Amino acid sequence: MFAPKHYLSKWHIKYNDKANDLAKEEGFENWFQCFQYHADNSQSAMDTEAPDITPWVLTKIDEQGNKYFDRNPYYYVVDQYGNQLPYIDQQAAVIVKDAEVRTMKLISGELHAAGENPLPVSDYTLYKENEQKGDYTVYLFGNTRGADCTFTFNINHKDPVLNQIFNEVKFREAMSLALNREEINNTLYYGKATVRQALPPDTTSFYEDWMGSYMTEYDPDKANALLDELGYVWNQDHTVRLMPNGKPFNIVLETIEEFVPVCEMAVEYWDKIGIKVTLKQQERTYYLERGKTGERDMQAWTMDGVQEFNLRSSAFGRLRPGNAFDDMEFQVEHKKWFNSNGAEGIEPPEEIKDLYNKCIKFSTLKPGSDEYMALGKEILTTVVKNLWFIGVTVSPRVIIISNRLGNTPTEGVFAYDYNFWKPYRGDTWYFKY
Domain 147-394 classified CATH 3.40.50.20? Predict the structure, then answer.
């Protein structure tokens, strides 16, 4: 339903044997890249001619990259009186320079709705203080993320020394125990967040209480003891620990703007246990592209889309080895191995292959059955205890909606799991005059 065949066929090699020639005419290397460009109807869509059945369709992209979506005359939904939806004629997705500019536009009333690109809870009081000036209302909605910020290490690193370090579960345990999550919560979220490890939410039927709190206590002494046990000794000045090759630790942590505040605090905690981590903020598109190269040391991203129905429908896709979080790409070579049936990449250890097979099997089981519950718990236990994902907290979602809009929500959950705004029927919103 999201890929109109009559429009897209000419860019697909199955329907047009000259699709590669057409792709090169449009500046692409091959038909597949060109097809993806025209078929994309996500936020990154660029084709202003593509038909769709959504309430609004992309009709214009200006020189600044701002996108304009016009009311779709072919949208199939009507209200209870027979009026065709949507009520609002046009939407605009406006690109801003940085978070500060976005904040200024919000409090001045220039933007009518905000939430999907998470608004920092640390700015909550600022937004509240300016409600009257900006003619909007601020809400705190629920959040189904497994963790707002999740750290992962490249366990397929090309450097053999770093690869060995990152594959040591005791090293990952030490890095988790070194984080003062309560301080992060109080500093960045006014204490409104929940401290937890990175894993599916506690509403998951096979979730157990110990999982969310696993290795989340702030215990630098234990972290230091684990690093000592691994043989990562301090240098003479006791300022940094040394790797097995005698070189000082200097791990590069790559991330995007959203996760920088948490990362800045994390880097300071890790420095205290002798692990120097250098933070490198990147533009989102570049970050995503770079991840595919497998050259990162470490990355920070969110753990999202892990509600139980998503775990079932995608065979634990967000946590399954070789598939887990393409945005993180912390096991690129394992992914190649799984995707090529062993012809490419690096063969994973037995534990990871076993976990992969269990995730696939899980999706075939009847929800709620004894086998389903047992296998789900087994998979989560393996994921949690290996700490491939190190979580920090989950905070409420800050939602801002203009008072000029009607039929808008005042409470609920705002999450990737439910496609953000979709449950709140934006096609029924209207402007008050």
Answer: no
